[in-house]
Amino acid sequence: MTDLHVILDATAMVAAGSGNVLASRLIHRAHTVPGWFLYAPTCALVEADRTRPGTAEHIAALPGIAVLDLDLPTALAVARDTTWAPAQIEYAARPTPERLDGSVVATADPENWKGRAVRVLDLNP
């Protein structure tokens, strides 16, 4: 089985806290199914919490979700962009030696990712 790595953008985090079934399934699988990995970038946590207060604490408390810090390499990548959350997500989604295929971005607003070099998982029904 190939591992699946999924990064939640801010819209996915807000959707998860609002009862979105697809977001809930992702969270459940990341917690219970080996090889499923779910990530919450810190910049997206801030953006989600500004949209829906309490979202950051909710997401950070869920089992199976790894919070991605804003470390130096990430900060340098973010500095080259005009956005924070999308830049951190795009950087985190790139292929690495540990994730040869990179990560998929889960979103409730796929239009936000037009023109960016990421694979998108649309959480809309």
Structure commentary:
With 125 residues, the protein is an alpha/beta fold. It has one domain: Rossmann fold. It is built from six helices and five strands; from the N terminus they run E-H-H-E-H-H-E-H-H-E-E. The protein has a five-stranded parallel sheet.
Write the layout of secondary structure elements.
Elements: E1 4-8, H1 10-17, H2 21-32, E2 36-41, H3 42-51, H4 55-61, E3 65-68, H5 72-79, H6 85-93, E4 104-107, E5 119-122
Parallel strand pairs: 1-2, 1-4, 2-3, 4-5
Defining traits:
6 helices, Rossmann fold, 125 residues, alpha/beta
Order of helices and strands: EHHEHHEHHEE
The biggest beta sheet reads: 5 strands, parallel
Number of domains: 1
Give the CA-CA distance, first to last residue. 26 Å
Going by CATH, what is the homologous superfamily? Answer: 5'-nuclease
Assess the beta-strand content as a share of residues. 15-25%
Please summarize what this structure is.
Helix content is 43%, strand content 18%. It has helices spanning 10-17, 21-32, 42-51, 55-61, 72-79, 85-93, and strands at residues 4-8, 36-41, 65-68, 104-107, 119-122. α3 (42-51) packs across α4 and α3 (42-51) runs antiparallel to α6.
